[in-house]
Amino acid sequence: MADLAADGESKSEIESALGIDDLQTFAEQYKLLREKEIVDTAKITTANSIWIEKSLELAENADEDFNKPAKFYFDGEFKTVDFKNNFSAVNSDISNWVKENTGNLIEDYESSANSDTVADILNAVYFYGEWQNKFEADDTYKQDFKGKSATNSVDMMHSDDSSFRYLAECNGITALALPYSGSEIEMDILMSSDEDRDISEAFATDKADEIFEALDKADETDIKLTVPKFTMDYSFDDLKTKLENLGIKEAFSESADFSKLAKNLMVTDISHRARVEVDEEGSRAAAVTEMTFETTAVAPIMNKTEFTVDRPFIFVIRDKESGVIFFTGRVVDLT
Hints:
The chain is an alpha+beta fold. It is 24% helix and 40% strand. It has 8 helices and 14 strands. The protein has helices at residues 2-5, 8-18, 23-34, 62-74, 83-101, 199-202, 208-217, 240-245; strands at residues 42-53, 76-81, 119-130, 141-146, 151-170, 173-179, 185-192, 220-228, 230-236, 265-278, 282-295, 305-308, 313-319, 325-331. The strands form 2 sheets. Strands 4, 5, 6, 7, 8, 12, 13 and 14 form an 8-stranded mixed beta sheet that branches. A 6-stranded mixed beta sheet has the order 2-1-3-11-10-9. The longest helix is centred in the first third of the chain and has 19 residues, at 83-101.
């Protein structure tokens, strides 16, 4: 949505960092994904909102260039608010919006906006999925998880009578796909093929597509599966440096160009928080991303194989049909 407002070098840097070759095509694909039929056993919902300071003078063509496409493609909800004189109430409204659109998983969100904010773009994602083959609670018991910092005894879920797509090795990674009921969405679990090598060293992002393609083509294998129950709640309070390293620089400077929304806008902060819960029934996950703006000074069954997730791993909640990744995280320690 920020890209809709951007122009010039600011727009080029955003699209380069996000890998967008054609914003129109990207927006159309997002709309198709948003409108995709969902089932109660595996549903993904997204919500977008734009909070505009009431005193901000919008660009002459803001309605055509930004407002209408943000609503049409991203279902962007527009709110005119008083950041300057009534920030406390606006902050409370933002927190409630996040809570409502993340299935109450993120219920204590604190906005990074302040009284100088003139525009605030928020994106919320919520996922609920029931495993295609649920784990039995009676088969959950304590077992060691050999984390990066320490080995701790944690609740481990076990399944001994199900088949899963299993990738023994690809680019130093072994992987398994845990499908959710009634959909193409799955949780992929990736570990280093070498038990003595850390997943952070073994996994190369430029090899990710190759690994997922290999996993999609993998045969179903009879697996003796062990997976930890876990909850992850993580916040990135400042993504500015990371995005600058990806090439988005002008957007954070006084040279920023978001003139399709309003003149003299620059991004002041980007924050992200995600929460993931995994148990015997399935998974719940939610995330919120916030970007604040201020004005510038201007198949076959194989022999049974064991897949024991008792060391650092990467998980990915992914739509196998479209390839879209909704959530991804790295678990290095559990307590």
